[in-house]
Amino acid sequence: MAEIIEISRLSLHDQVAARLRTMLIEGRIAPGAKLNERELCEQLRVSRTPLREAIKLLAAEGLVDLLPNRGAVAVRLTEADVLNTFEVLAMLEGMSGELAAQRIGDGDLAELRALHYEMLACYARRDLSGYYRLNALIHTAINNAAGNPVLTATYRSINARVQSLRFRTNQNEAKWKSAVKEHEQMLEALDARDGAALRKVLVEHLLRKRDTVLDLLRAGEIYPNAIKS
Fold first, then answer.
1. DSSP letter, residue 24
2. Most exposed of 79, 138, 222, 225 (fewest Cβ within 10 Å)?
3. Same domain for 127 and 191
4. Are both 64 and 89 inside the same structural domain?
5. Nearest to residue 25, comparing CAs of 159, 186, 143?
């Protein structure tokens, strides 16, 4: 019985973490804002124990900072953070693409293609939340297909901190349309097993994301009401 209870607890804090992760990525918890445990317990209908376990998990992922005398705070990046993070992330995604084109199996490619078509359906419905979830799964699938666990661990730890920023880059219709076109190019390169082409489109895709984030940041559109650390 003790083992069953432990599995149940683990499942609960994973569920809480998933809901908090979405709230952070979609900006429902403002960047720089303190995570109010009492309010979140009421909103998510859970006790403090699974909530705190979930917050620790998100802190390990890089979505939350644990600050002395402030507790858990939603990550808030500076312009320098954005420049440095996307510079490294673009190189990691490019490497992932080049290796994935060489190593991806037919089954994994078919699954990735299915995710792409689901993502297109979300785009057609203008379902940004669903689109972003599938978009992130596609990037993760390409990274996994590279078959390099060190690359995967490094990519995930860095990518986590900019997920909310990547989400915001598609709120402009023209940029969203451009991102969809780039994803079609990614799939074409994978189909052709063209590693150089996939590296190129992924690096350009990430650098365009970076430029969009910087434009939004400088215009005060990303952190207009954020609580400063």
1. H
2. 225
3. yes
4. no
5. 159
What is the domain extent for residue 60? 2-74
Task: Return the structure tokens found at 30.
Answer: 């403002």
Using alpha carbons, select from 115, 140, 127, 111 the residue that is nearest to residue 176.
Answer: 127
Q: How many residues does the chain have?
A: 229
pLDDT tens readout for residues 164-208: 888 888 888 888 999 999 999 999 999 999 999 999 999 999 999
Same domain? For 101 and 201 the reply is yes
Question: Do 164 and 27 contact (CB within 8 A), yes or no?
Answer: yes
Give me 210's structure tokens. Answer: 């970076």
Q: How far apart are CA 168 and CA 223, in angstroms?
A: 11
- Global confidence as pTM: 0.81
Give the 3-state secondary structure of residue 65.
strand
Cα of 28 vs its chain's centroid, Å: 15
**Does some domain include residue 68?**
yes
**Domain match, 96 and 201 both:** yes
